[in-house]
Amino acid sequence: MANMSIAQPSLRDHLKALEDQELLFRITKPVNPKYEAAALIKQAAKLKKAILFEKILASDHQAVANVVGSREMISIGLGLSSTDLLPELSNRIRSEFKTRLVKTGPVQEEVSDDPDLSKIPILSYFERDAAPYITAGTVVAKDPDSGFRNASFNRMMLKSSGKLGIRMMPPQHLGIIQSKSESKERQLDVAVVLGNHPAEMLASASTLPFGVDHLDYAGRLRGERLETVKCKTVDLEVPANAELVIEGEIEARVREEEGPFGEFMDYYVEKGSNHVLKVKSITHRSDYIFQALLCGSPEDLSILALSREMAVYTALKSGDFDVTDVSLMPFIFNAAFSMKKRFDGEPKNALLAAFGAYSWLKYCVAVDDDVNVQDLADVWWALATRSDPDRGLVHISEAMGFPRKDKLEIHRGKLGVDATVPMARREEFQRKKIPESEKVVLENYL
Ligand SMILES: Cc1cc2nc3c(=O)[nH]c(=O)nc-3n(C[C@H](O)[C@H](O)[C@H](O)COP(=O)(O)O)c2cc1C
């Protein structure tokens, strides 16, 4: 791969690491940005591999997707082991790293004063999508009161060569920040970053307490200070090693039609009246790689899952529960966590803490630490052989869930299941084992 950075690890270094581990498909045939690329991304995601399109029709630039399509791929990006990811990450985020401002960075190799979005190979994904959409862009904005920097994923519809439709609604923090600016009749400066390293992707998918700076947090996830550069036309900083940045502003009190769009729940969000981003400048690497993301794919769900698994894991640990792992896959409204319980009622307390830590959570299962929560079959096995539907349930009605207005009545109840073995009967529930089976490897017999 050309021009690999030797400075702070970038998306390119991550792609190289994936390729070295045979976790990247390289497509040399020309691919149509309308639907064809999306169909290929879907298949690559199923095979748990990233996909790099060397030739997108009518574009001079490459495109890439599914770069964090599994827990393993995220671990590779962060240089951590996938088995101990949660404890290792929660150690990392205890650091105090702030970003480090540098004078120049690859993301500003070229600055275009006459920005034209139509030159970027933005993909069209689903049949009813209103237009091509930017889906892997992380939107950086500053809170007008405290100045902390928020970064979040927001879908963006291509409206014209200088304009994007963008969806940002409170309680999402970008929506809160924008409404604060709007109440003072001010536009909000934003920078949309594409071609992010996995740490910045994970930081942008995380819902942190309001006021925690997402770029500082990305550095903590990396285990070193994140290097940033000043934007050219807005008062913001962005990761110096990214691929491309769209600088612009969200005008106060301007809304236009946006959508429909095929989003993460596998449905379409219908046309709505949403915000508008006016582009001021585009900066990029000379040979930038456009970053795409298939909404609802394992990539989308894996980063959302890991950021929220961290929230649940940290809350359970600080509640003094001996939690060993958490999984929100394959879909982020449902979770399973494993724990070493010390009292029979404890898993129910832990279930309540998990619901408190992550409001979108709907169904949650507590299992013993001999169950692998990363393996859905193992969780179903524990439910089938260890839970008691008469006594093991925690049902909370009318609680807040996923906060989209048109689906509120579906996402409000919560159900927790204690699928742990009664303390007094542990002997009887020991899992069976073939002696020394780890020493017997099938490959050696073929
Ligand atoms: C690929 C992707 C696209 C997303 N698109 C949107 C969106 O269009 N609007 C939105 O409000 N949230 C969207 N989200 C969710 C937010 O980015 C996410 O909830 C983030 O945690 C927001 O955190 P914050 O409220 O702290 O800013 C998206 C997430 C991902 C991973």
Low-confidence stretches: none
Q: Alpha-carbon distance between the termini? A: 36 Å
CATH architecture classification name of the largest domain: Roll
Describe the biggest sheet?
A: 10 strands, antiparallel
Number of separate strands:
24
Q: Which structural class do the helices and strands define?
A: alpha+beta
CATH topology of the largest domain: Pnp Oxidase, Chain A
- Beta-strand percentage? 15-25%
Helix run count:
10
Full CATH superfamily name of the largest domain: Electron Transport, Fmn-binding Protein, Chain A
Bound heterogens, unique: flavin mononucleotide
Q: Mean pLDDT, rounded to whole units? A: 96
What Rg is obtained from the alpha carbons, in whole angstroms? 23 Å
Helix content: 10-25%
Number of separate domains: 2
Shape: globular
What this model shows, in words?
The protein is α+β, with helices and mostly antiparallel strands and 446 residues long. The protein folds into two domains: 11-298, Electron Transport, Fmn-binding Protein, Chain A (Pnp Oxidase, Chain A, Roll), CATH 2.30.110.10; 319-429, UbiD C-terminal domain-like, CATH 3.40.1670. It has helices at 11-20, 36-46, 71-78, 85-92, 173-183, 198-205, 214-222, 298-318, 346-357, 376-386; strands spanning 24-27, 50-53, 62-65, 100-101, 110-112, 133-134, 138-142, 149-153, 156-160, 163-166, 188-194, 227-230, 237-239, 244-250, 256-258, 261-262, 268-269, 272-284, 289-291, 323-327, 334-339, 363-368, 393-396, 414-419. The strands form five sheets. Strands 5, 6, 7, 8, 9, 10, 11, 14, 15 and 18 form a ten-stranded antiparallel beta sheet that branches. Helix 4 packs across helix 8 (298-318), helix 6 crosses helix 8 (298-318) and helix 8 (298-318) packs across helix 9 (346-357). It is globular and about 70 Å long. The protein starts with 10 loop residues before the first helix and ends in a 27-residue tail after the last strand. The mean pLDDT is 96. It binds flavin mononucleotide. Flavin mononucleotide binds next to strand 8, helix 5 and helix 8.
